[in-house]
Amino acid sequence: MRNENQNILFEMGCPECFSSAPFLLEVRGSPRGVLEDTTIARTVEMWDDGFDDQQLTGHTSWDEDSPCACVCGYKGTARDFRLVSALELLARCADQDEEQS
Ligand SMILES: [Zn+2]
Questions:
Q1: Which of the listed residues 23, 52, 69, 98 has the most CB atoms within 10 Å of its CB?
Q2: Which residues place a Cβ less than 5 A from the ion ligand 1?
Q3: What percent of the chain has pLDDT over 90?
């Protein structure tokens, strides 16, 4: 598995196709030209070095439960795209295979 993410998407990858970017990630932020305390959710194309969205100001946030999708069609949450959890999942599947045989 090859993964070059070093910044925002550090240790993240698609558990389905192992792509490292971009991901369609739902982030929360303040819309441009609106009061600071207004927060909207937008799905952006997130790359390791950030995203380009004209609707949002620079202050955005997302967490492990934010909806995240890959261009291959895989959908989940940001947590599902953690390589660590993907590897754990593989290990768990391997355990189940052993139990069945
Ligand atoms: Zn994928």
A1: 23
A2: 14, 16-17, 19, 70, 72, 74
A3: 49
CA of 38 to the centre of ligand 1 (A): 32
The separation between the first and the last C-alpha atoms of the chain, rounded to the nearest angstrom, is 27
Q: Report the alpha-carbon distance of residue 24 to residue 10 in Å, rounded.
A: 15
Give residue-wise pLDDT tens across range 49-87: 999 888 887 678 999 999 999 999 999 999 999 876 556
52 within 8 A of 58, measured Cβ to Cβ: no
pTM of the model: 0.76
**Per-residue DSSP letter, 7:** S
Q: Tell me, in angstroms, the distance from the centre of ligand 1 to residue 70's CA.
A: 5
Helix, strand or coil for residue 64?
A: coil
Q: How far is Cα 43 from Cα 87, in angstroms, rounded to an integer?
A: 26
Neighbouring residues of 65: CB distance < 8 A, sequence distance ≥ 6: 77, 78, 79
Domain ranges of the chain: 23-100
